[in-house]
């Protein structure tokens, strides 16, 4: 089984972990590369899908292959984005760290937002590349371009990506047995924040035409920024995320800021319900793998500094030999030759 959770957590906790991994890491991102979803019975081979997701898989097999690719991308992008911080996304790949995502932490907020953005992003790009037969290029903008510009190319189909991505991403949270109402609201909100970050990442891209590279005419289309750029935007929102509480507002309960509850939650801000651990020491119950043996930067004053990364425990130095290309020369026409140079660098890891 893909769930290996000791001490047998409650059904609610297990469910939240299932919902998390179904589009993040422990399930779809670990689907074998050799598995191609081209027959309906293959949907049964994908762990963690709720009924509506399984139905979406059976009715659109090509789409599932794209979603699996998105899940793998979430894991890699998350870990690169947080490589300089105590929490570096490693815990999204460790099934025993349940509480970090089941209790509605700041980290949970980021992962849900990134997952929602990544799924829609990958679908939109797949339409452009022709990998999905049910969609094609995005529409040509209605506004008239400036002189010297013309609409053309193949735009990323953001609309289709958002529609199909939200159907998949939000399906677990719309189940009746999806846990507490507060957690459902939080995850639905953060997923929408991720998709809004994707909308903001739609920019104009152009290709030049003209004699001798004069660029007298530019053919332009609307394309999405890379997922790594969207992840950095969401990281900024993570750092300024708002802690919320679930309380009655009018005729129903809503999420409102805990410290400034006179205003509603903003549509573009990540929200969380529970404070996170400091991630300094390993603690399975709190979802922390600790920072022992993590590499740190001795000269930095940021989150990757040895003081902050090592939580005051100190650090150990070691040396590493690097082999790099050097003394490169360009030869007419048209190749480059380089020599190999060795240098010794000093590294530092936390005690």
From TrEMBL:
<keyword id="KW-0449">Lipoprotein</keyword>
<keyword id="KW-0732">Signal</keyword>
<dbReference type="InterPro" id="IPR018161">
    <property type="entry name" value="Wnt_CS"/>
</dbReference>
<dbReference type="GO" id="GO:0005125">
    <property type="term" value="F:cytokine activity"/>
</dbReference>
<keyword id="KW-1015">Disulfide bond</keyword>
<keyword id="KW-0272">Extracellular matrix</keyword>
<dbReference type="GO" id="GO:0005615">
    <property type="term" value="C:extracellular space"/>
</dbReference>
<dbReference type="InterPro" id="IPR005817">
    <property type="entry name" value="Wnt"/>
</dbReference>
<protein>
    <recommendedName>
        <fullName>Protein Wnt</fullName>
    </recommendedName>
</protein>
<dbReference type="GO" id="GO:0048513">
    <property type="term" value="P:animal organ development"/>
</dbReference>
<comment type="similarity">
    <text>Belongs to the Wnt family.</text>
</comment>
<keyword id="KW-0879">Wnt signaling pathway</keyword>
<dbReference type="GO" id="GO:0045165">
    <property type="term" value="P:cell fate commitment"/>
</dbReference>
<dbReference type="GO" id="GO:0030182">
    <property type="term" value="P:neuron differentiation"/>
</dbReference>
<dbReference type="Pfam" id="PF00110">
    <property type="entry name" value="wnt"/>
</dbReference>
<keyword id="KW-0217">Developmental protein</keyword>
<dbReference type="InterPro" id="IPR043158">
    <property type="entry name" value="Wnt_C"/>
</dbReference>
<dbReference type="GO" id="GO:0005109">
    <property type="term" value="F:frizzled binding"/>
</dbReference>
<comment type="function">
    <text>Ligand for members of the frizzled family of seven transmembrane receptors.</text>
</comment>
<keyword id="KW-0964">Secreted</keyword>
<feature type="signal peptide">
    <location>
        <begin position="1"/>
        <end position="29"/>
    </location>
</feature>
<keyword id="KW-0325">Glycoprotein</keyword>
<dbReference type="GO" id="GO:0060070">
    <property type="term" value="P:canonical Wnt signaling pathway"/>
</dbReference>
């Amino acid at each position: 089984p893909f769930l290996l959770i000791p001490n047998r957590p409650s059904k609610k906790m297990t469910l939240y972990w299932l919902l998390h991994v179904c589009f993040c890491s422990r399930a779809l991102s670990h689907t074998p590369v050799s598995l191609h979803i081209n027959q309906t019975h293959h949907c049964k081979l994908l762990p963690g899908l709720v009924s509506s997701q399984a139905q979406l898989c059976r009715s659109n097999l090509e789409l599932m292959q794209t979603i699996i690719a998105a899940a793998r991308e979430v894991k890699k992008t998350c870990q690169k984005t947080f490589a300089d911080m105590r929490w570096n996304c490693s815990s999204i790949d460790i099934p025993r760290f349940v509480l970090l995502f089941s209790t509605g932490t700041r980290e949970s907020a980021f992962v849900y937002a990134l997952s929602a953005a990544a799924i829609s992003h990958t679908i939109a790009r797949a339409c452009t590349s022709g990998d999905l037969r049910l969609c094609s290029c995005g529409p040509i903008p209605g506004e008239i371009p400036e002189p010297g510009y013309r609409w053309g190319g193949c735009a990323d189909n953001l609309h289709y990506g958002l529609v199909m991505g939200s159907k998949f991403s939000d399906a677990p949270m719309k189940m009746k047995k999806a846990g507490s109402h507060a957690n459902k609201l939080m995850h639905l909100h953060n997923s929408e924040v991720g998709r809004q970050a994707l909308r903001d990442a739609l920019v104009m891209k152009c290709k030049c035409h003209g004699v001798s590279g004069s660029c007298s005419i530019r053919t332009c289309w609307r394309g999405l920024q890379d997922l790594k750029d969207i992840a950095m935007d969401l990281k900024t929102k993570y750092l300024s995320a708002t802690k919320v509480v679930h309380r009655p507002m009018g005729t129903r309960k809503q999420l409102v800021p805990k410290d400034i509850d006179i205003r509603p939650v903003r549509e573009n801000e990540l929200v969380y319900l529970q404070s996170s651990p400091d991630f300094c020491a390993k603690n399975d119950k709190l979802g922390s793998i600790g920072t022992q043996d993590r590499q740190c930067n001795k000269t930095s004053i940021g989150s990757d500094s040895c003081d902050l990364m090592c939580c005051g425990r100190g650090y150990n130095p070691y040396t590493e030999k690097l082999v790099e290309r050097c003394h490169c020369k360009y030869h007419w026409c048209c190749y480059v030759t380089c020599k190999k140079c060795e240098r010794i660098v000093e590294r530092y890891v936390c005690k």
